[in-house]
Write a structure and sequence with these properties.
By secondary structure, this protein is α/β, with parallel strands linked by helices. It is built from 9 helices and 9 strands. It has a 5-stranded parallel sheet with strand order 2-1-3-6-7, with helices on both faces. A two-stranded antiparallel ribbon has the order 4-5. It is globular and about 55 Å long. The N and C termini lie far apart (50 Å).
Length: 293
């Protein structure tokens, strides 16, 4: 009986440890060989800093940063082939057409062997980035953005966002058609402007307009999430963890710059209302977490 008991105990120990070994194997992070990054200025982590802007993959006019999230991801994954097509001002139409006659169609960088794609697009199609440029005011009670876009209870920006949705869906479908074996990760936009108001006069946008912009950003991200769900790809949510890092926060805390075109992270010229290096780092961490790194 004692011999039988020892056999049963040994068998039980093996049976217990086998699932652990299996789980360890399945938890191995995937390896990628060919990574292509697509998108707009938030994908390029656009910069005006001459020490950071690069034309390695795109023209200088794209303002693509050497420290962009995509380049960080490519380095961390040690991919053999990496191409970054992202460009400031890009819209979905620039995926299949030349942007300003300088940056070739972004989809040209995709191949049938591409196995990882990141995409961040839609903000320029909706016109939200351009709208923010019209918000600054010297009157804390004025709401030039709200007054311009909301007329007789109809919010044109909401309509713009809705109209951009099929374009984003078509873009994702275009990626899948050209890179059928790729894992496709679509990023949303993190909180550059909070929904709770502005920090007037440090950023000369009234609370009313700042809250409106913040709500439109939430709508934009919801649209991106619907497009992701409709196409069966993956969403990388950079917005959820960005509370307390909007442009109103102090240097070293904020992940996006405000109206003044100057950044402290790193020190130098910056694109207003766009990610600084801390923001790019947050985007990179989010993508790497999504692929298990």
């Amino acid at each position: 009986m004692k011999k039988v008991s020892r056999v049963l105990i040994a068998c039980a120990a093996v049976c217990v440890t086998l699932p652990v070994v299996s789980e360890s194997v399945s938890a191995t992070p995937p390896r990628f060989d060919e990574y292509v990054a697509l998108g707009d200025s938030w994908a390029a982590d656009a910069t005006l800093n001459p020490g950071l802007v690069t034309e390695e993959f795109v023209p200088l006019t794209c303002a693509q940063s050497r420290g962009s999230y995509a380049k960080q991801v490519a380095a961390a994954l040690a991919v053999a082939a990496f191409r970054d097509a992202s460009c400031g001002g890009a819209q979905t139409v620039d995926m299949t057409g030349s942007q300003k006659g300088l940056n070739p169609p972004q989809f040209d960088r995709l191949t049938v062997s591409t196995d990882l794609v990141t995409l961040l697009i839609g903000g320029n199609d909706a016109g939200l980035a351009a709208a923010v440029q019209g918000c600054p005011t010297l009157d804390s009670g004025a709401t030039p953005c709200l007054d311009s876009f909301v007329v007789d209870g109809v919010d044109r920006m909401s309509a713009n966002i809705a109209a951009a949705e099929p374009k984003v869906v078509a873009t994702i479908e275009g990626v899948r058609a050209r890179a059928p074996h790729a894992r496709v990760l679509v990023l949303n936009y993190f909180k550059g402007v909070g929904t709770e108001g502005s920090c007037f006069p440090a950023i000369p946008i009234s609370d009313g307009d700042a809250r409106w912009v913040g709500r439109k950003l939430v709508e934009l991200n919801a649209m991106v999430a619907r497009a992701v769900e409709a196409t069966g790809v993956e969403l990388v949510d950079t917005y959820a963890a960005s509370d307390g890092h909007d442009a109103c926060q102090p240097a070293g805390v904020r992940w996006a710059e405000g109206l003044v075109p100057f950044s402290s992270d790193p020190v130098g010229p910056a694109v207003p209302f766009h990610p600084n290096q801390l923001g790019a780092d947050h985007q990179a961490r989010s993508v790497l977490a999504a692929v298990g790194r």
